[in-house]
Amino acid sequence: MSELHPSIVALVALAANIAAKHPKQGLCQLDKLREYGVPEAHIDTVIEIARHIRDEAGQLLDASFDAARAAAQTQVAEAAPAGKPKVAKGKPLTIAIAEAGGACCTPTPGGKSCC
Fold first, then answer.
1. Which of 10, 43, 59, 110 has the highest count of CB atoms within 10 angstroms of its CB?
2. Distance separating alpha carbons of residues 16 and 51, to the nearest angstrom
3. Of all residues in the chain, what percent carry a pLDDT higher than 70?
């Protein structure tokens, strides 16, 4: 099996660092990519896609959290006697997960595909 070119590994690592919000931010990979002669336009594309995936994931997690919170509030309101809202002990909450429809992802603001 052939190994990936070091520039490809550095591009993947840069994208992963950005998408994962790693504290080192992939700055080491930037230096390596420049040493390998990777054009800045390619680096910019990888950064744009990684940020888009990171931001989209955050938005989906926020929407899922908000839906679960709303469902829990509804359950509590329906189960509680009037005037005294209480949370039932030991009762698991149902968390709705929104299904993503359509394409596997949306394009970045710059129109780049992340799929």
1. 10
2. 10
3. 74
